[in-house]
Structures are given as structure tokens and as C-alpha cells.
Design brief:
By secondary structure, the protein is of the alpha+beta class. It folds into three domains: about 15-75 and about 140-410, no CATH class; about 415-605, no CATH class; about 635-720. Helices cover about 45% and strands about 10% of the residues.
Length: about 800
């Protein structure tokens, strides 16, 4: 299943995206966890007459312990204005003159009016379903593809409605070669590199990389076909699924396709109060889960995209169900070189059951920012989700603060489980769902082998500890490099300690501990200096969500087995949680704080090229340096300029007053950058700090085996390797967006992406020909406080 193309790099063993191997069955999210009861199997996505395809993206509360909902991307403007057979969803069929109808309704009794309204709503909903079915896979498409099935890969489906000229075409604006090599090195992007170069700064129908408006490649042009398929798949138009072969007769009679009649009846029964008990619901769910894992009977097999369910605290307040309102995971694959598992997810590909009132789309403005920031954080060495591809849907206009063109980011992470994922089920008392999610996180996310089975060891407390340590390390690096997330809600914090969900983030310009990058954060909850405190609140919520399972494990000396938690009463669960929650959190709080401080100091030591750990580093070197910068000096420039210190103080002697004074003068334009009332004191503090710093460097680096000259040379290299010359400043991202919107300048996007991925290179510092642009992009420019996007852009 390989396509033998050069891919611009001479490789002859690349696979098109649908040919990428799926992750092993035992590691698949949808085979380990519980589905939305209204889309219980991948086959539920197939559109037949009795199905309701609108449920794939109709905003609703998803219950019964479900971890996810099967859904398909549908990148269209919302509210939908779908056309089919000459009718439009917005306009109800007119059976009579509107005035006559109004008079008729006014003459009805209240009971008749209610019946009329219900019948009218039903008729309108039936029309919605009828018009949406052409946008989904049909039984005929499944039957036609039966001979092409391969259980190790996805089958591509392109529904009729998505072939229409009115469906939006896609244009890939850029992709990260480093993400490609790090995560999916087998992926064939075809002629994408050549395409991007040839179509940079061009407009018109010829610039589309896929879709109805794009030119379909010739069947023998493998490179163009790989690029077209990649674009179609990552724009959400081409659907990648595995669907079982079921005869048409079975489709008409059974419950496996569409939303089954039995499911509808059960939902109605539950709403009327005749709901199942927790034990009955769990028994049914576990039976279904076992069938999914075995793939028997046939209708329980298959593979399909999905969106995750989660809840969360937003700005400290409980917000209830949130979920992937505009994120859809397309597939799980793995790096053939490292065997690391990855989930490929689209952000901005349309509505899901968790979209609430939103449209499920993302604007170009925020998509460019997430694409660049993900790779910039990776370049700095900070744990993060990755961004593979940025795709424009230029024909879709999205309403935010103003009209914006739509765009999609294809992003990658080993798993997309959040702290809010655990909160979601714990607050609902869905303890078997908490258990399943915990086992999945430990085994697939952390790679632990002793979580389930006969030799299983308690895992809940270990999970909390692992999550605490990972996030503490990440937050420490945020502080060290001046990154501000802006929206540290519990649903935006990864259990893997990755930086995820880039919205109104910002990188520090002028160092200021109180900087707030999110204009919606009026109280400064997520200000720079508050980020460790905010993260600690998130870890407290995770601890609370798992406390009952920790209590069970401590009581029994083993983890809970399937069905044991649902058999416990609410009072028993509460008692287990109360006994352990306070004790665990006291331990985890100390662990979090100690880990943050330890790695914060280690990060600053690295930036200062220090080789030894000393207890007083925080008070003698780190905080005095930030005090010098605070309020007036640019963080990145100041730290990068430290690499010039050996040029001024060549002897590494703290008594070289002349060299130290000259170096301090070079750190800033003191006359213009600082007001007179603080200038002298700040310069004195800088001189004092440099003397202490030089003395420390000499103590560590100079010896009988290492001369001053050798030490100075190595110090300079170490400082350059730890202090970026480039960071993704807000104004740089704004310029990339503006040049894409106004001139389709994909070359500039690629240039900035390269600088993001290699921030420690001497961009613009060598004053060589052609480096003026690099120097400009490393300049301070317009400060952070302007033109920040909202959380939902």
C-alpha cells in the first residue's frame, strides 16, 4: 500500500495519507472507550432514510458515560443553507398563503396549535435530514468500495453533496516538514513543495489544492494525486473510514446503519423518566464495548472520525459539558521509526455535538497563529502538540468580531485527553467511564504496562503524580521563555503535559511579570506571574476527579475491575473520595510547587550557561536579572545579548569594570528606554548583577585544564544555544496573516515557520547580504497588547 514518489526528498517508500497504517487495535481510542449512544458504531455515520445525519453535529448533551461521539467533518457556514432538489432548508414548503395560514392558526384551540407546531417542526426536521444525507456516506458507496477494503488503512469516501461546485474547495497554505519527519515520516505529501512554490502570491481558481474548483490530477500523476488526497482529507471534504460489508437488506432491517430506531425509543423512554439503572446502563455499555473490541458481530467493527467529550472550569467557574466543539480526530497512526502513536485532528472542520451555539469553524487569523505557535514551542524545546498543515477554506466566510475567511489546522498529539476529560465523568458520577479513561491514559498515553490484567497495580495516584510532574515541567518552561497561554482552563490542559489549544497566547516582549495576553481575562487570572498558580488549580481538579478511585485502590490494594465502581453507592464513592482527596492534594500540591521551582531554576541556569546547581541561584542570579529587565527591557533581546558578554569581559574577571560597564550599556538604549527616575538605579543593579554573574562563570568554567579563552568561547556557544534570537511576536504573526489575506504570500509563511522551528540560529546577526529581513523579524516591533484574538476565533 505504498505510493512510489520522490516527495521532493528522494524517498521511494512514502504512503498517501489514507494509506497510513492505523494504530494497533489495543491502543485505539474508540475501541477502548464508550461511544455516544446515538452514534454507537462507525456504521451509524452511514446515511439511510431512517437515519438522522444532523445528530452528527447537532448541539446536545451527550450522556450515558460516553467519552466521544462519532462524527464527520462538514466545513460549511452555519446556520446551514443546504440546497437539494430545488428546495432550501431555510424555506418551508408553502402549502398555502402565509396570511391564510396565520388566520387558520389563530382560529385553532391551544391543543390544535401545539399539534400544528409539532407537525410543522417535524416536517422541517425531516427536510433538514433529507438535505443533509447527500453530504454523508451512503450504503451504495459502501457497497461500491467493498472490493477495495484493507483493514490496515482507511477507505476514502466522497459523498455526492461534497462534489457540488457550491462545496468549498481547499488551498494548503503551508506544512511543517519537521512535524512530518517527527510524527508521520511515511506520509507522502506528493508535489506539495513544488505546488506551494509555483502558486505563491497567486490568486484564482488554479491555486486550490483540492475540491470541486481544483483541477483533478491525472490518474498516472502519483505526486499530484498524493497532494490532492492530502488536501482533500485535511480540509475535511474527503472522509476516511472503515465500514463493514453489510447487505442492503440488513441495512434496511437492522440498527447498525444510521441512528437506530431502538436508540430513538430508548432516548424517548429515558426522557419520560423510565430510564435504566446505572448498573443496567453499564452492563449494556460494557457489552457493546466488548463487541467493538472483538469486531463481532460485523456491524460493531470499523473505524471513523470522532470528537471528544469533556467538561471544565473556565476562569475558575464550572462550565459543564464543553467537548470538541470544532475539533475532529481523523485517525490514529504511528511513526514507523519510533513506534510512537499519534492522533491527527482537524481544528475548525465544522460542528460536532459539542459545538453548543458555535459554528465549529476557525478563522484564518487564529489558525495561522496556532500553526506557527505549535512549531515555535517545539523549536524552543517546550512540550507541545504539533501542527502538520494549514489549509485555507477561502470560500467560507466566518462571523467573529468581523467577517474572516475560514481555515483549518491539522494538529497532532499522542492523545488529546485533558484534565477536563476526567472532570466530565467524575462530576456526573460516571465512575466506570473515569476508570476506562484512566486505564487508556496510563497505557496508551504514558506507556505503562501494569495497569490492567491479572498483574495490575494501582494506577490512579500514579496518574495524578505523572500529570502533575509533566505539567509542572511545562509551566516552568513557559515562565523561563516568557510564554503566556492566556486560557488555562481545565479543558485546555493536557494530561501529557503538552501545551495545547493556542488561542489568545503571547510571547513576552518587554519583561513584565503582570502581563496579561488575553483581553477577556479582565482579572488577570492567567497573567504571566499567575500561570503556576492557575496550573495548580487545574491539578487540584484532576486530583478531586480521581480521589475516589485512589481511595478504592488504597482500601483494596489493587485497581478497580470492570463493574466494581458502578456497584458502589454514591455515599460509598463519596466516602472513598473524602478519605483521600485532602491527603493526596496536600502531597500533589507540594510536588507541583517543588517541580515547578526546580525546573524553572534549571531552565534559567541553562539560559545563563550555568553548569552547577546552587541553592541560592534564584536569589543571587535569576530574580535579580528579571528585576533588571522588569518593565523596560525586552526579554528575548536581553537574554540573547548575554552571549556577547565574553567579547566585553574577555578575562571573565568581575573586576573588569570598564568591560562590564560597556556590556551593560549595550544591553539597552538606557536614555530612551528608561525614564530618568529609574535609569540610574536600574543600571547600577545591572552592573552589580553582571559582576556576580561573571564571577560565577569564572568559578565554574576556568581551571587548569580550561583556559579563560577556551571558557569564554564555550560560554558564548552555550548562551547562543539556549537563548533564541527569534520568537513569534504578536506583530510577526499579524504580518503573516495580513500577507496571506491580501497577497496569498505563502513564501513569507514558510519563512516565518522556519524561524519558529530554528529560533536559536543567528537570524539577522551576521549582517550579511540578504539578512535585513531576518533582523527586522527579530526586532521588537509593535508590542504584545494589540490585536489579540478571542478564545473562540
Amino acid at each position: 500500500m505504498t505510493s512510489r514518489t520522490t516527495n521532493g526528498e528522494g524517498s521511494l517508500s512514502k504512503r498517501s495519507i489514507l494509506n497510513l497504517p492505523l494504530a494497533p487495535k489495543g491502543t485505539r481510542f474508540t475501541e477502548r472507550l464508550l461511544p455516544d449512544p446515538l452514534t454507537p458504531t462507525p456504521s451509524a455515520l452511514v446515511a439511510v432514510e431512517e437515519s438522522a445525519p444532523s445528530l452528527l453535529r447537532r448541539s446536545r448533551q451527550v450522556g450515558e458515560g460516553a467519552h466521544f461521539s462519532y462524527t464527520t467533518p462538514l466545513a460549511l457556514e452555519f446556520p446551514y443553507s443546504l440546497e437539494g432538489n430545488g428546495e432550501e432548508v431555510k424555506n418551508e414548503d408553502a402549502e398555502e398563503d402565509p396570511e391564510q395560514e396565520t388566520k387558520r392558526v389563530e382560529a385553532m384551540s391551544p391543543e390544535e396549535r401545539e399539534t400544528f407546531a409539532m407537525e410543522r417542526a417535524k416536517k422541517q426536521m425531516e427536510k433538514v435530514e433529507r438535505l443533509m444525507r447527500p453530504y454523508e456516506v451512503t450504503p451504495e458507496m459502501v457497497a461500491d468500495s467493498a472490493s477495495e477494503k484493507d483493514l490496515d488503512r482507511l477507505q476514502g469516501y466522497l459523498p455526492k453533496g461534497r462534489k457540488s461546485q457550491s462545496y468549498p474547495s481547499a488551498r494548503i497554505l503551508g506544512y511543517s516538514k519537521e512535524c512530518l519527519q517527527d510524527c508521520v515520516p511515511d506520509l507522502d505529501v506528493g508535489d506539495l513543495d513544488v505546488w506551494l512554490k509555483e502558486h505563491a502570491k497567486k490568486d484564482g481558481p488554479d491555486v486550490y489544492t483540492s475540491g470541486p474548483m481544483a483541477k483533478t490530477p491525472a490518474k498516472d500523476d502519483k505526486a499530484a494525486l498524493a497532494r490532492y488526497e492530502l488536501s482533500d482529507f485535511l480540509s475535511g471534504r474527503l472522509l476516511g473510514l472503515q465500514l463493514p460489508d453489510v447487505k442492503d437488506a440488513d441495512i434496511e432491517q437492522g440498527a447498525e446503519r444510521g441512528v437506530a430506531e431502538a436508540q430513538h425509543k430508548r432516548v424517548v423512554r429515558n426522557r419520560e423518566g423510565a430510564s435504566e439503572s446505572s448498573e443496567e446502563r453499564w452492563k449494556r455499555a460494557s457489552d457493546t464495548l466488548a463487541k467493538r473490541q472483538k469486531g463481532e458481530p460485523k456491524e460493531y467493527s470499523g473505524y471513523a472520525p470522532w470528537s471528544n467529550a469533556y467538561s471544565g472550569h473556565q476562569f475558575g467557574q464550572w462550565a459543564g459539558q464543553l467537548g470538541d466543539g470544532r475539533a475532529i480526530t481523523l485517525m490514529e497512526t504511528y511513526n514507523s521509526k519510533t513506534n510512537q502513536r499519534y492522533e491527527i485532528q482537524l481544528k475548525g472542520a465544522g460542528r460536532t455535538p459539542y459545538s453548543r451555539f458555535a459554528d465549529g469553524l476557525a478563522v484564518l487569523f487564529s489558525s495561522v497563529r496556532e500553526f506557527l505557535a505549535s512549531e515555535a514551542m517545539h523549536g524552543l524545546g517546550i512540550p507541545t502538540s504539533r501542527a502538520l498543515c494549514l489549509t485555507s477554506l477561502r470560500d467560507i466566510s466566518v462571523r467573529r468580531e468581523q467577517r474572516n475567511p475560514a481555515a483549518i489546522v491539522a494538529r497532532i498529539a499522542p492523545i488529546w485527553v485533558r484534565v477536563g476529560s476526567f472532570e466530565h465523568h467524575a462530576t456526573r458520577g460516571e465512575w466506570e467511564s473515569v476508570r476506562l479513561l484512566g486505564e487508556f491514559t496510563c497505557e496508551v498515553g504514558y506507556g505503562w504496562k501494569d495497569v490492567t490484567g491479572t498483574a495490575a497495580k494501582p494506577w490512579a495516584e500514579r496518574l495524578i503524580k505523572e500529570c502533575v510532574i509533566r505539567n509542572a515541567k511545562t509551566i516552568a518552561l513557559w515562565q523561563v521563555y516568557g510564554f503566556m497561554h492566556g486560557v488555562m482552563n481545565t479543558d485546555n490542559i493536557s494530561v501529557l503535559g503538552l501545551t495545547i489549544d493556542y488561542g489568545p497566547y503571547g510571547f513576552m516582549d518587554i519583561f513584565d511579570r503582570h502581563t496579561i495576553c488575553n483581553k477577556s481575562d479582565s482579572e488577570g487570572r492567567y497573567a504571566y506571574h499567575m500561570q503556576p498558580t492557575a496550573a495548580m488549580f487545574v491539578m487540584e481538579q484532576l486530583t478531586s476527579s480521581l480521589a475516589a478511585i485512589v481511595g478504592f485502590e488504597r482500601k483494596h490494594g489493587r485497581p478497580p475491575r470492570a463493574g466494581e465502581l458502578v456497584a458502589l453507592s454514591s455515599s460509598e464513592i463519596n466516602e472513598l473520595g473524602k478519605e483521600t482527596n485532602e491527603q493526596i492534594w496536600t502531597e500533589m500540591k507540594s510536588l507541583f510547587m517543588d517541580t515547578v521551582i526546580e525546573h524553572w531554576q534549571d531552565g534559567w541556569r541553562k539560559r545563563l550557561a550555568l553548569q552547577e546547581k546552587r541553592d541560592d541561584d534564584r536569589y543571587t542570579l535569576i530574580e535579580p536579572l528579571t528585576d533588571v529587565m522588569d518593565g523596560y527591557l525586552d526579554m528575548t533581546h536581553t537574554m540573547r545579548k548575554l552571549s556577547r558578554l565574553p567579547d566585553f569581559v574577555q578575562t571573565l574577571d568581575e573586576n573588569d569594570s570598564e568591560g562590564i560597564d560597556k556590556f551593560v550599556e549595550s544591553l539597552a538604549n538606557w536614555e530612551n528606554d528608561l525614564p530618568s527616575y529609574v535609569r540610574d538605579d536600574r543600571k547600577k543593579a545591572a552592573v552589580k548583577w553582571v559582576k556576580t554573574y561573571v564571577q560565577r562563570l569564572r568559578e565554574e568554567r576556568v581551571s587548569e585544564k580550561n583556559t579563560v579563552e577556551q571558557a569564554a568561547q564555550q560560554i558564548k556557544k552555550d548562551l547562543q544555544a539556549a537563548n533564541p534570537s527569534f520568537i513569534l511576536r504578536n506583530w510577526v504573526a499579524d504580518e503573516v496573516i495580513e500577507r496571506l489575506q491580501n497577497g496569498d504570500d505563502t513564501e513569507f509563511l514558510e519563512k516565518v515557520l522556519g524561524m519558529c522551528l530554528h529560533p536559536f540560529q543567528p537570524w539577522g546577526e551576521e549582517k550579511a547580504e540578504g539578512q535585513a529581513e531576518d533582523e527586522r523579524l527579530c526586532s521588537l516591533g509593535t508590542l504584545l497588547t494589540t490585536n489579540m484574538p478571542s478564545c473562540s476565533s
